[in-house]
Write a structure and sequence with these properties.
3 helices; single chain; 30% helix; alpha/beta; 3 strands; 3-stranded parallel beta sheet
């Protein structure tokens, strides 16, 4: 199973490992956009707030290495009830304000 930070003892299949690989091979990187279109890698915790913190941890690591964070997604961007968001929803406002998201590739599905 893939992840952002290797939080499931799967560093080999993590976004962090890919960032480290590019850096190790002196490949220029300016942006990293994990694909969350299938809920893969970003939503590894048991709550939406935990997932936001997971994304923040990866974003902090990326920025420390000179890389900005974006997100590749196909999901709706706002929870239906912002005061009571569900685990399987997204909250673009928290992704920006807490996790430091700076760009988004989004394909909205009706």
């Amino acid at each position: 199973m893939e992840s952002l930070n290797g939080e499931k003892d799967n560093y080999t299949f993590s976004a962090r490992q890919m960032l480290d690989w590019y850096k190790e091979h002196n490949m220029p990187l300016g942006w990293f956009l994990p694909n969350d279109g299938y809920k893969a890698g970003y939503g590894q915790t048991d709550s939406l707030d935990g997932d936001i913190e997971n994304l923040k941890e990866f974003g902090d690591y990326a920025r420390k290495n000179g890389v900005e964070l974006g997100l590749w997604t196909e999901f709706k961007l706002h929870p239906k009830d912002p005061k009571n968001p569900k685990k399987d929803e997204r909250d673009i406002e928290k992704e920006i304000s807490i996790a430091g998201l700076r760009c988004l590739r989004h394909k909205y599905r009706f």
